C-alpha cells in the first residue's frame, strides 16, 4: 500500500512513538526451559536479562515447591544487543545482555508453573520485571533394553536408578513390526551383532526412529558396529556413524578369499530365495565393506572350482559385484581340502609385501563337507605363513565339529547358523574382524569436542580401555572423541526421532571404572532421557497468539480424518475457575478459539473432545513496557515504512502541519481523441474528392439542413398539409429532363446536340469567357438550362474527360 501511495504522489508523514521510556530500565527478555519432562528429571532453566544501564540485578524464582535466588552484574563488558540497524538505545548505551541459569527437580507427573522476578536499583517500570513459565511432567516413559543378560545388567540397573521404567529383552524377542515397538519411548541396544536380529526387526527399528519419533541408543562392544556386522543394515542407516573406516595408515591392506559351497543343497530356498543367492549377497556385503586398497576373490566350489571371481582390488568392486549377482548352485558336496588349497594359491598371487593381511573365509554345509583328510595340516601351514581362516557352517550337521576345528586351527572364528538369511550379517562381521584394527583396545579418556546438554556438566570421567572404530556421518554431532580422532559419543536427528551411538561398552571389559563410577546412573539416565520423544508428537499441535485484549488458540491436527472434529479447550489457572472455549474449524485440520487471558500467571490448556492434548501458555508482558519493542522496533519499522512509501519521518508535532506538500501536474493523453477525429473526417474527405463537391454544394446542403431545422421547429396547424421538399434524386431527375431535347410532338423544335468541345476550345473558353447574359435576355429564357452548371452536368463532364 505504501509503495502504491508513493507511486501516486501521496505525501507520507510518519511519527515514531516510543512510549516515553527515557530512564534506566531492566527487564526479563526471555525464559528458556523444556516444555515436557518426566518424573525424576531435573529441569534446566535459563533466564535472559537485559538492561540499558550497567548495574547488578537479583533474580528470584519459585517452582514445584522450590525457590532460589541469583545475582548477575551487568557491566560495559557484558554482551551488548544492538537495536534495529545498530542504533543505540535512548541515551547512547546499547542493551546489556546477560543470563542466569538454574534448575529444579520434578518428582510427580502434572503441570508445573514457574515464576521468576527481577530486583534492581535503577529501574523505571516494574511491569516487565517478572515472567512466567511452565513445564508438563508426563508419566514415566518405558525404555526397552536389548542384549544378552550379562551385557545389559549394569546399564539396566543404572537406568532404573535414574527413575526410568525399564524393560529387558533379547534380540530374538523383539517384535518384527514397528507397531510392536511403538509402545516404548526408546530402545537401547547393548553390544549385539546384526545377525542376532531378524531382518524384519532391523527394519522395524529404523522405522521406529524415523517415522514414529522414538529414541535409539546403541552401546558398543566386541560384537557391535562394524565388527557386529551392522554395515549396510537399516540399523546403520538410523545411526550417526558409518561402520567402515577408510584409513590405510591404521588398516593395512587385506587380501581375502571367500570360498562358497556350490553343492546342490545351496539351491534350496528360504522365503523364496535360494541359499546360493543369499551367499552371493553376503559376498557383496564384504566387497562393500572393504577399503579401496583391499583385494577380494570369491570362489564357488564343489568338487572343483566351478566359478572363480577375482582376485580384484576394491577400486573395481562394481565389476565383481555384477558377476556375483549371476552366481548359481551346482551339485554334490564341497571338497574342503581342494577348496582351501585353491584359496591359498590365489592368495599367493596377490602382492602387497609383508604388511598385507591374508584371510580365507569358508562357507560349507554342516552335513556335507567332504575330503577332510589333510585339511588340518594345510591350515597349520597357512598360519605359519600369516594366513588366517574362518568358517561359516549352515545347519547343525555331522561335519560341524570338523569345521569348528578348522576355524580354531586357522586362528579364525567359527559361525553356525540355521538360516542362510544370516549370511550377509555374518560375512560383514567377519570382514571387519579380519581387519583386526576395528577394535581398538588401549587406555584413554574422553575428549570433549562439542557441547551437548546431557553431558555438559561432566568435567571428569574414569578411564576407558577400548572401543570400536567408526566414522561419523556428515550430519552427525560428535560430542566426545576417543583416540586417533574416532568418535566415542555421537548424536543426530533421524527423521522424527533421535539416535545416539556410544562406541565403547558398558561392562567391565572396557568400562570397568565407569560401572563403579558414582555418576554412572546419572550419565546414562541423562543420555536416554534426552532422546525420548515428546508426547506432543502425536499428530496435534497447539499455539496461543496474544492480541491486544484477547488471545487466540490455534490447534492443528494432522493425519487422516482431520475435518469435522468436535474440539474444545479448557483453560485452567491456579486459584481461578476453569474456562471452557469451543474450537471452530477455520481451515483443513485447523481449529481456533479465543479467550481473555489474565494479566500474569501460567495457564494449563487441555484440548478435549474427538482428540486430546495437554499444553501450557504464559501471557507475555505488555509490549509497551519492553524497550526493544517500544523504541528500537518502532524506529526500525518506521524507517522501513518511510523507505517503501518515500515518506518523511518527523518528531515535532507542528511539522505535521507545515506547508511542505508537493504539488504535481497531471497530463491527459490526446492520442485517442485525435484518432477519433481522423476516423470521422476520413469518409468526408473521400466523399469530397470522389463527388467533386464545390462550395455552392456546401451552401445548398447547409440551406437544406437549415430549412429542415426551421420546418421542424415551426408549429403545425391542425389539418394543414405540409409540403415535402424535393429530394436530391428528384432534383437530379428534373435537371436531366430539362437537358434532354424535346420531341416534335411536344410543340418545341428539337435541339441539336452540342458539338464536342476540344481541349483548345475548352482552354480558350476558360481564358476568355463570354459576358454573362442578362436575366432579360430572351435566349436565356428560351433555354433556361443551357448554362446551368448542375451536379449531374459536372459528373457527366468528368466522365467524358476520363474517357
Q: Tell me about the largest β-sheet.
A: 8 strands, mixed
Share in β-strands:
25-35%
**How many strand elements?**
40
Per DSSP, the total helix count is 20
Unreliable sequence segments: 83-92, 743-786
* Distance between the amino and carboxyl termini: 73 Å
Structural class: alpha/beta
So what's the overall shape?
flat
Rounded mean pLDDT is 80
**Major sheet strand order:** 12-11-13-14-32-31-30-27
Radius of gyration: 51 Å
Helix content: 25-40%
Provide a short characterization of the protein structure.
This protein is of the alpha/beta class and 803 residues long. It has 20 helices and 40 strands. The strands form ten sheets. It has an eight-stranded mixed sheet with strand order 12-11-13-14-32-31-30-27, sandwiched between helices.
Layout of strands and helices, then pairs:
Blueprint: H1 2-7, E1 13-14, E2 26-32, E3 36-37, E4 42-51, E5 55-63, E6 66-74, E7 79-81, E8 95-105, E9 110-120, E10 130-137, E11 142-146, H2 149-161, E12 165-169, H3 178-181, E13 186-190, H4 199-210, E14 215-219, H5 234-238, E15 241-242, E16 254-261, E17 269-270, E18 273-274, H6 275-289, E19 295-301, E20 305-313, H7 317-324, E21 334-335, H8 336-348, E22 357-365, E23 369-370, H9 375-384, E24 387-394, H10 400-409, E25 414-417, H11 423-435, E26 439-440, E27 447-448, E28 467-468, E29 471-472, E30 477-481, E31 487-494, E32 497-502, H12 512-515, H13 520-531, E33 540-546, E34 551-557, E35 567-572, E36 579-587, E37 590-595, E38 603-609, E39 613-617, H14 627-645, E40 648-649, H15 671-691, H16 695-713, H17 728-739, H18 759-767, H19 778-782, H20 791-802
Parallel strand pairs: 1-40, 3-10, 11-12, 11-13, 13-14, 14-32, 16-19, 16-22, 21-23, 22-24, 24-25
Antiparallel strand pairs: 2-4, 4-8, 5-6, 5-9, 7-8, 9-10, 15-29, 17-18, 19-20, 26-28, 27-30, 30-31, 31-32, 33-34, 34-37, 35-36, 35-38, 36-37, 38-39
Helix pairs in contact: 2-13, 6-7, 6-11, 8-9
Amino acid at each position: 500500500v505504501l509503495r502504491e501511495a508513493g507511486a501516486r504522489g501521496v505525501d507520507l508523514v510518519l511519527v515514531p512513538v516510543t512510549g516515553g521510556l527515557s530512564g534506566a530500565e531492566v527487564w526479563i527478555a526471555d525464559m528458556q526451559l523444556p516444555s515436557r519432562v518426566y518424573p525424576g528429571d531435573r529441569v534446566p532453566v535459563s533466564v535472559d536479562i537485559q538492561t540499558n544501564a550497567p548495574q547488578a540485578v537479583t533474580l528470584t524464582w519459585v517452582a514445584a515447591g522450590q525457590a532460589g535466588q541469583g545475582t548477575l552484574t551487568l557491566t560495559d563488558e557484558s554482551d551488548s544487543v544492538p537495536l534495529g540497524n545498530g542504533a543505540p538505545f535512548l541515551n547512547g548505551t546499547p542493551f546489556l545482555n546477560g543470563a542466569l541459569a538454574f534448575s529444579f527437580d520434578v518428582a510427580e507427573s502434572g503441570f508445573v508453573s514457574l515464576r521468576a522476578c527481577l530486583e534492581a536499583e535503577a529501574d523505571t517500570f516494574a511491569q516487565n520485571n517478572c515472567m512466567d513459565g511452565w513445564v508438563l511432567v508426563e508419566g514415566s516413559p518405558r525404555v526397552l533394553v536389548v542384549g544378552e543378560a550379562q551385557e545389559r545388567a549394569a546399564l539396566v540397573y543404572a537406568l532404573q536408578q535414574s527413575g526410568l521404567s525399564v524393560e529387558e529383552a533379547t534380540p530374538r524377542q523383539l517384535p518384527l513390526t514397528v507397531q510392536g515397538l511403538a509402545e516404548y519411548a526408546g530402545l537401547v541396544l547393548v553390544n549385539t551383532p546384526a545377525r542376532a536380529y531378524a531382518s524384519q526387526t532391523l527394519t522395524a527399528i529404523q522405522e521406529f526412529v524415523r517415522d514414529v519419533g522414538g529414541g535409539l541408543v546403541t552401546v558398543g562392544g566386541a560384537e557391535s558396529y562394524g565388527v557386529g556386522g551392522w554395515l549396510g543394515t537399516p540399523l546403520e542407516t538410523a545411526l550417526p556413524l558409518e561402520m567402515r573406516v577408510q584409513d590405510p595408515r591404521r588398516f593395512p591392506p587385506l587380501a581375502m578369499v571367500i570360498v562358497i559351497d556350490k553343492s546342490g543343497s545351496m539351491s534350496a530356498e528360504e522365503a523364496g530365495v535360494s541359499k546360493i543367492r543369499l551367499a552371493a549377497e553376503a559376498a557383496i556385503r564384504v566387497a562393500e565393506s572393504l577399503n579401496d586398497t583391499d583385494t577380494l576373490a570369491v570362489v564357488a566350489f564343489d568338487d572343483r572350482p566351478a566359478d572363480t571371481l577375482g582376485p580384484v582390488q576394491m577400486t573395481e568392486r562394481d565389476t565383481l559385484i555384477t558377476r556375483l549377482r549371476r552366481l548359481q548352485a551346482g551339485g554334490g558336496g564341497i571338497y574342503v581340502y581342494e577348496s582351501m588349497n585353491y584359496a591359498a594359491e590365489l592368495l599367493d598371487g596377490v602382492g602387497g609385501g609383508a604388511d598385507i593381511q591374508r584371510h580365507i573365509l569358508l562357507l560349507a554345509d554342516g552335513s556335507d563337507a567332504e575330503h577332510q583328510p589333510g585339511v588340518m595340516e594345510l591350515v597349520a601351514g597357512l598360519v605359519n605363513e600369516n594366513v588366517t581362516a574362518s568358517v561359516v557352517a549352515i545347519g547343525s550337521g555331522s561335519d560341524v565339529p570338523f569345521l569348528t576345528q578348522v576355524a580354531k586351527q586357522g586362528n579364525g572364528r567359527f559361525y553356525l547358523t540355521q538360516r542362510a538369511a544370516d549370511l550377509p550379517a555374518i560375512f560383514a562381521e567377519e570382514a571387519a574382524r579380519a581387519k583386526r584394527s576395528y577394535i581398538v583396545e588401549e587406555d584413554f579418556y574422553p575428549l570433549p569436542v562439542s557441547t551437548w546438554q546431557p553431558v555438559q556438566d561432566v568435567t571428569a570421567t574414569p578411564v576407558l580401555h577400548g572401543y570400536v572404530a567408526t566414522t561419523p556421518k556428515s550430519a552427525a554431532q560428535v560430542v566426545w572423541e576417543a583416540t586417533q580422532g574416532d568418535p566415542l559419543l555421537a548424536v543426530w536427528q533421524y527423521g522424527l526421532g533421535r539416535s545416539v551411538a556410544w562406541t565403547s561398552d558398558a561392562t567391565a571389559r572396557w568400562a570397568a571404572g565407569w560401572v563403579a563410577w558414582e555418576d554412572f546412573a546419572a550419565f546414562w539416565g541423562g543420555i536416554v532421557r534426552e532422546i525420548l520423544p515428546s508426547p506432543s508428537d502425536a499428530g496435534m499441535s497447539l499455539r496461543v497468539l496474544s492480541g491486544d485484549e484477547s488471545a487466540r488458540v490455534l490447534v492443528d491436527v494432522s493425519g487422516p480424518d482431520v475435518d469435522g472434529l468436535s474440539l474444545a479447550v479448557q483453560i485452567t489457572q491456579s486459584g481461578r475457575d476453569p474456562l471452557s472455549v469451543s474450537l471452530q474449524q477455520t481451515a483443513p485440520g485447523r481449529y481456533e478459539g479465543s479467550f481473555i487471558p489474565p494479566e500474569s500467571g501460567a495457564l494449563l490448556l487441555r484440548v478435549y473432545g474427538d482428540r486430546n492434548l495437554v499444553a501450557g501458555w504464559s501471557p507475555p508482558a505488555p509490549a509497551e513496557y519492553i524497550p526493544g519493542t517500544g523504541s528500537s522496533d518502532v524506529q526500525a519499522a518506521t524507517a522501513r515504512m518511510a523507505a517503501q512509501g518515500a515518506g518523511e519521518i518527523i518528531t515535532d508535532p507542528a511539522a505535521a502541519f507545515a506547508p511542505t506538500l508537493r504539488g504535481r501536474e497531471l497530463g491527459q493523453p490526446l492520442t485517442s481523441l485525435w484518432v477519433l477525429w481522423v476516423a470521422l473526417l476520413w469518409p468526408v474527405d473521400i466523399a469530397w474528392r470522389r463527388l467533386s463537391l464545390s462550395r455552392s454544394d456546401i451552401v445548398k446542403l447547409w440551406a437544406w439542413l437549415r430549412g429542415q431545422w426551421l420546418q421542424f421547429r415551426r408549429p403545425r396547424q391542425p389539418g394543414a398539409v405540409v409540403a415535402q421538399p424535393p429530394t436530391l434524386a428528384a432534383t437530379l431527375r428534373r435537371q436531366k429532363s430539362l437537358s434532354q431535347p424535346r420531341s416534335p410532338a411536344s410543340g418545341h423544335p428539337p435541339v441539336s446536340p452540342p458539338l464536342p468541345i476540344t481541349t483548345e476550345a475548352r482552354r480558350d473558353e476558360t481564358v476568355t469567357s463570354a459576358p454573362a447574359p442578362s436575366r432579360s435576355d430572351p435566349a436565356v429564357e428560351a433555354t433556361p438550362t443551357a448554362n446551368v452548371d448542375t451536379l449531374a452536368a459536372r459528373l457527366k463532364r468528368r466522365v467524358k474527360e476520363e474517357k
